[in-house]
Amino acid sequence: MVTEPPHQIRDAVRDHPHYDRGGHAMQILTVDKKFLWITEAFREAWLRPWGSKLKHLKYRLLWELRPFFKDHGKAPLAVDIEFANECNLRCTMCQQSTNWWNKKINAVVSWDTLKSVVRQCKDMGVYSMKVNWRGESTLDPECAEKIKYIKDQGIHEVQMNTNATKLDDVLSYKLIDSGLDRIYFFL
Ligand SMILES: C[S@@+](CC[C@H](N)C(=O)[O-])C[C@H]1O[C@@H](n2cnc3c(N)ncnc32)[C@H](O)[C@@H]1O
Ligand code: SF4
Question: For ligand 2, what atom is nearest to the CA of residue 163?
Answer without folding.
Answer: 1
